[in-house]
Amino acid sequence: MGSREEIVAAAAKVMREQGYAHATTKVIAKTAGYSEAMLYKHFRDKTDLFLSVMGEELPALGAVLGELTADPGRAPLRDNVVRVARLGLAFYLEGFPIAVSVFSSRELLRSHRERLGGHGPRGLLDGVAKYLRAEQALGRVDAGTDVEAAAALLLGACFQQAFLATFEESEPADLADRLADTLLAAL
């Protein structure tokens, strides 16, 4: 593992423990065993580092959605939806402690949203809807299904379960199969 990967791993650790708002680049660099100058050699700023953590240290939900959209018929519909639900649960469970502090002030949230420039949380929601549209094209999801609403129901349930597990400091229930079956009954 090189310095960049070690810094991303350290950032994930620090952000999980302290949240994005309180994780400083100085502490992240020190945790990784590098100088702050080395951190800035790889990353423009803390937001750039945050995006790397979200993309590299959390379950690859976005990549899987791209894969499923490109070839939706490769596996049974239920298997694909269970896979999305399982990854959604894991993604939000691991990401919640990192990202929640961004909401600690309106100014921080506004600044962070501006810096993300379209790479915010809506991307996953749009990815699930795009995948479900690909399934509609195959005839495996009813043509009348509101795929945006179905995507919101699935990811919203995943987010809620991650929130509860984080709040209660408990292990999340493995609801992926049940979430998928309930959603599929409506599709």
UniProtKB/TrEMBL annotation:
- Print the keywords alphabetically: DNA-binding, Transcription, Transcription regulation
**Which residues mediate DNA binding here?**
24-43
Q: Which domain of life is it from?
A: Bacteria
- The answer, when asked if Transcription is one of the entry's keywords, is yes
- Identify the species of origin: Amycolatopsis nalaikhensis
Record-annotated HTH tetR-type domain positions: 1-61
PROSITE patterns found in the cross-reference section: HTH_TETR_2
Spell out the protein name for this chain. Answer: TetR/AcrR family transcriptional regulator
